[in-house]
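Researcher: We plan to redesign the surface later, but first we want a full-length starting point. Tokens attached.
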């Protein structure tokens, strides 16, 4: 084969190879690139640190010196209240004394409160009823005694009344006096008889205790006033110009002194009975006033002194119990019992944990500490329940650092926003602390942004694709970046 033929064959082979390569490249499957749509949403930058949960109150309890435990009153998991006796190294007598002293404090405080608050509603009702009954009894007594006195006076003033002529030579029959004298005044009725046109031919002029003029009737008594007395004249006698006197009371009656004593005794008894009823009424009022009035200063001083005395006795017993009794310092759950009854305690024998409040403790490295501020939100993922995140917030940042392996860490406290029942002291957690956030920002996935010289993205519009410059406002740790320079709805293509 000539040299020219060999050259032609080599060139043909090269052309064939190049053609094959070009065919493979351009006849292969269509190149597909990832796309995303520019939208609006939140972009968050966080730092992630580890931490652990710490109960706000944990007490490891022990006796002040080695001693044999005589009584262990609790078990692990028991709920105890502040002041409950948990274990003793004595004989238990002081524990009983403390319960009695505590009851005495409660009793003294209740007595003082009762003194301050006064009567119960039921007792007030009884007091008001007693006053009302006493007032009613007083009114009844006054009416009853007034009637008795009036009756005794009527008996004194009305018995054996006679009309006497002022003329010693009067021969007409004296008028008959009847009725019951009901008025209080004593004195004399004067009856002057004179001729008139009355059926009897006479009329009488009344003066003295009462004043009136009446026609005389022989058929019925004639009232001589409004006090209840009447007179009856005898038909056929000559009464013209006669004058008669009726003395009230009739002191010449043989029964006058007896009736006078009866009247005076009735008056005296009435005064006594009314005075007694008035005293009873006043006493009921005084008792009601006393029971409803504010307590006296002396009574309050005595009540307060009783409370102080009872509290001092309780404190005295607590002091005695201090060396031989373990008392719960706060409400909580008993845990970690290390010693049994009969064994000698040389260190903490149990713990009390307040299982209702916890603080999350994290150590922030110095590289991140300047970006952490109090009140910043956080999301916590506990190893024990990683699918149940809990929100929290930064509550405290230590002003001094702890150096670990040459790196400064700042202890930071976070407050949980909720406390599920499964939380326990010592649980480990991953904590995402939000240090910066853009809300409702124009955003794209960060992996679509090229930052070689400036921030750019590839934007597809219709069938064309062009590079567009953007400004990055915030690069989040959630995979997004907040940007400006594009429109919502633009389609970007991964570089």
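Model: Full-length starting sequence:
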């Amino acid at each position: 084969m000539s040299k020219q033929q060999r050259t032609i064959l080599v060139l043909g082979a090269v052309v064939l190879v190049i053609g094959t390569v070009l065919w493979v490249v351009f006849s292969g499957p269509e190149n597909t690139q990832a796309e995303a749509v520019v939208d609006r949403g939140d972009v968050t930058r966080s730092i992630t640190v580890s931490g652990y949960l710490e109960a706000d109150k944990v007490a490891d309890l022990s006796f002040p010196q080695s001693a044999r435990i005589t009584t262990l009153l609790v078990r692990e998991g028991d709920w105890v209240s502040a002041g409950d006796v948990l274990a003793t190294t004595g004989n238990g007598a002081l524990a009983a004394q403390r319960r009695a002293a505590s009851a005495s404090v409660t009793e003294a405080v209740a007595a003082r409160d009762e003194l301050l608050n006064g009567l119960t509603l039921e007792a007030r009702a009884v007091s008001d009823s007693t006053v009302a009954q006493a007032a009613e009894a007083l009114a009844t007594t006054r009416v009853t005694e007034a009637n008795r006195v009036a009756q005794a006076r009527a008996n004194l003033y009305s018995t054996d009344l006679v009309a006497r002529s002022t003329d010693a030579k009067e021969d007409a029959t004296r008028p008959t006096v009847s009725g019951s004298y009901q008025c209080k005044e004593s004195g004399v009725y004067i009856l002057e008889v004179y001729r008139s046109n009355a059926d009897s031919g006479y009329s009488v002029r009344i003066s003295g205790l009462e004043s009136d003029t009446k026609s005389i009737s022989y058929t019925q008594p004639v009232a001589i006033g409004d006090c209840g007395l009447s007179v009856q004249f005898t038909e056929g006698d000559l009464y013209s110009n006669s004058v008669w006197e009726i003395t009230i009371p009739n002191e010449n009656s043989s029964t006058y002194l007896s009736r006078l004593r009866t009247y005076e005794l009735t008056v005296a008894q009435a005064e006594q009975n009314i005075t007694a009823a008035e005293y009873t009424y006043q006493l009921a009022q005084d008792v009601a006033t006393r029971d409803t009035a504010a307590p006296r200063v002396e009574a309050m001083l005595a009540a307060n002194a009783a409370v102080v005395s009872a509290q001092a006795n309780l404190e005295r017993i607590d002091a005695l119990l201090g060396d031989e009794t373990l008392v719960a310092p706060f409400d909580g759950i008993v845990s970690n019992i290390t010693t049994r009854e009969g064994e000698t305690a040389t260190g903490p024998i149990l713990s009390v944990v307040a299982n209702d409040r916890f603080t999350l403790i994290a150590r922030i490295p110095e590289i991140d500490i300047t970006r952490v501020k109090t009140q910043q939100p956080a999301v916590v993922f506990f190893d024990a329940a990683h699918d149940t995140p809990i929100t929290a917030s930064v509550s405290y940042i230590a002003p001094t650092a702890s150096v670990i392996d040459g790196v400064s860490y700042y202890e930071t406290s976070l407050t949980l926003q909720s406390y599920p029942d499964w939380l326990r002291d010592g649980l480990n957690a991953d904590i995402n602390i939000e240090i910066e956030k853009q809300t409702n920002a124009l955003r794209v996935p960060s992996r679509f942004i090229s930052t070689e010289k400036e921030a750019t993205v590839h934007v597809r519009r219709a069938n064309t694709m062009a590079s567009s410059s953007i400004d990055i406002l915030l690069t989040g740790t959630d995979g997004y970046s907040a940007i400006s320079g594009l429109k919502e709805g633009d389609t970007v293509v991964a570089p």
